[in-house]
Design goal:
The protein is α+β, with helices and mostly antiparallel strands. 27% of the residues lie in helices and 25% in strands. A hairpin with a 5-residue loop joins strand 2 and strand 3.
Length: 64
């Protein structure tokens, strides 16, 4: 895997841990909601985990 800067990462970044959050103006943003496995590490680990989760969800859907 490519080396990224060492930083705080989610550690369990998948679509089940993402969700909408509204700000005071009613604007919705998608944020990470689960930080119980947060660690200092390579951010590529979160990106790969999220990518695999998205691919798995797309493969199991009825989308063309």
């Amino acid at each position: 895997m490519p080396e990224g800067p060492t930083m705080w990462i989610c550690g369990d970044c998948h679509i089940g841990n993402l969700g909408p959050v509204a700000d005071v103006h009613g604007e919705l943003v998608i944020e990470i909601r689960d930080f119980d496995q947060t660690v200092v590490g390579n951010p590529v680990h979160d990106l790969v985990r999220l990518g695999l989760s998205l691919a798995s969800a797309a493969g199991g859907s009825d989308l063309p």
